[in-house]
Amino acid sequence: MSEKAVYFDGNTYLQNDSLSAMPASSPYGFISYWTNAVFNVDTASATVLQNGVAPDGQWTISISQSSINGDGLAGLVIVLHDDPNVAGQMVRWSNGATDFIPYDGLWHHTMISWNTQTGSCVAYFDNTPVTMSSLPGVDSGPFDMSFNGYVWRVGVADPNDTFVTPSGVNETAFIGSLAELFFLTGTPVDITDPAIRAKFIDPSTLQPIPIDAGGLWPFFDTTGDVPQIFLSGNADMFPRNYPSWSATCVSQTDSTPSSTFYVPAASNPLQTATDSPFGPPIS
What we know:
This protein is mostly beta strands. It has helices at residues 194-197, 220-223; strands at 6-9, 14-16, 25-26, 28-37, 45-53, 58-66, 75-81, 89-93, 108-115, 120-125, 128-130, 133-134, 145-146, 151-154, 175-185, 229-231, 271-272.
């Protein structure tokens, strides 16, 4: 049976040239994803999700598991901009020395929500709160983020970056397995509420809560919200982005929606992972 997760080898990424379901602007964001990642000490960065406008390199959002101090201790890093003018910016990070992300061959869950108007950024790792600190002198006040017309990428920050490490991987590439990537903007999500977190991670087993292919399960029945990005399944199914495609429970064997991600020619093929987070509880 094919695993419900995908593997990125360091030279693999996914791209969507524009997501019409994105709101024009919003201060709110929420992301949930599962990783079994390899922390590359040569690069000190593993980008999960990023969007930007090529070739100027400007981007609105970048979420990574990185060593911001170059100390080899990985934490969560989120950088939010009001592009293209970068009139506002908000950077939050968890100190790898105190909130270390383990790279131990096991699956782990990350959940982050934010509000760029208030400067709030809340994060949980394996259902445990993580302190997200600001960088002195970086933040520039309240702003809304623009989302329309941007290229969205999973697994790499900038594929035009010509630097590669001695091991031959991109400088800011994600290496490892990824599953159940759920991104929602345009509405606030309070992840301090255990009931909200329990829609994504079982608090007893620390395993994923199964979500239908359309990403409807967490919020649609209560608030009518569906994520703009929900990537799930094996290498064949993962790039199919079903949110906002149908207001009914759909199957990933249905016809391909218009918001499909793809593997660019510059990328190595996406692979099905050898295991998934739908397995034994995290130890």
